[in-house]
């Protein structure tokens, strides 16, 4: 081979070696980037959501839960199920979520929390919109949940006693109608607490049960001529059909106190309540601790709503001919 040919060959070898080194360097940079991402925890988390039924309060709780994970900067892929208020669908949806083996499951309302808790003792599970988490056998205690479940409850210790006292003292109701689904554990607990408060205030609770939202209107009609006012607690079945209660009660000029602020906005006279968005968000913050920090649900205390406030719907009060007393210390909403 001549001198010129040799020079060309060496030049080509040098170019090939340079290109190989460049590719290796790029590969090294990519590996370093991937390693950096792994070290920083940049991963996609799979999160299951089971909501028992569609209504504004539960919807707000789910929004709050998602907002907490978003604010934590987590990349989340959701698998969402809605039981549509049906026990059979609820059980099937819970089993479907557990079979998918997500990193955590968020349950919204007592029946959904119970269904998921029955389906898994391993997957970390968060709940909200649950009235009595201990009575529902979801946790051992608020302070030390135990097991794989924790979350936020949707009852403040003062809400029911304050509402019954207001109905008795300020609205002078002697008989208070309560429409609820007796099959919902959270509702039974609230009715029992209302009865205790009624006894203390010298008034009577009159009950009517509705097992589906389609039965709510008829249940309300069965009470409207027997009571002076209604108290609608945070019962998923009845709240999903709240307008049926409001229409029947308004026709007879009977005030309806409710158990959540979202229901005041829908036309309830008033409520001692809190934001469902906030309790959903707090459950989401717990989920972030589990996903990011590796905490166990058993080590995260369950929580009560932080803030209780009294709201009165002015438009509803005007329709009923009720003057809003400044001594009620209520936040008036239009």
Automatic annotation (TrEMBL):
CDD domains: PBP1_ABC_unchar_transporter. Pfam families: ABC_sub_bind. It comes from the Bacteria. Keywords: Signal. Residues 1-24 form the signal peptide. Gene3D superfamilies: 3.40.50.2300. This is ABC transporter substrate-binding protein.
């Amino acid at each position: 081979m001549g001198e010129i040919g040799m020079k060309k060959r060496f030049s080509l070898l040098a170019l090939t070696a340079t290109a190989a080194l460049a590719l290796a360097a790029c590969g090294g940079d990519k590996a370093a980037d991937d390693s950096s991402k792994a070290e920083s925890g940049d991963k996609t988390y799979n999160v299951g959501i089971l909501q028992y039924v569609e209504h504004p309060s539960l919807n707000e709780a789910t929004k709050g839960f998602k907002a907490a994970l978003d604010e934590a900067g987590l990349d989340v892929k959701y698998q969402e199920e809605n039981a549509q208020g049906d026990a059979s669908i609820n059980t099937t949806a819970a089993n479907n979520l557990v079979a998918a083996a997500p990193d955590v499951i968020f349950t919204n309302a007592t029946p959904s929390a119970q269904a998921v808790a029955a389906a898994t003792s391993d997957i970390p599970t968060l709940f909200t919109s649950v009235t009595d988490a201990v009575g529902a056998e979801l946790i051992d205690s608020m302070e030390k949940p135990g097991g794989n479940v924790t979350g936020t409850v949707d009852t403040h210790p003062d809400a029911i006693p304050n509402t019954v006292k207001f109905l008795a003292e300020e609205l002078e109701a002697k008989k208070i109608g309560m429409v609820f689904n007796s099959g919902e554990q959270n509702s039974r607990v609230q009715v029992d607490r209302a009865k205790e408060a009624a006894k203390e205030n010298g008034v009577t609770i009159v009950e009517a049960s509705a097992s589906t939202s389609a039965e709510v209107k008829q249940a309300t009609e069965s009470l409207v001529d027997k009571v002076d006012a209604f108290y609608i607690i945070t019962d998923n079945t009845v709240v999903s059909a709240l307008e049926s209660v409001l229409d029947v009660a308004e026709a007879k000029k009977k005030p309806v106190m409710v158990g959540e602020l979202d229901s005041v906005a829908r036309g309830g006279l008033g409520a001692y309540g809190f934001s469902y968005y906030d309790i959903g968000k707090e459950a989401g913050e717990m989920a972030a601790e589990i996903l990011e920090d590796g905490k166990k649900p058993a080590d995260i205390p369950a929580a009560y709503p932080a803030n209780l406030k009294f709201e009165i719907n002015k438009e509803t009060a005007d329709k009923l001919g009720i003057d809003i007393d400044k001594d009620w210390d209520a936040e008036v909403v239009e």
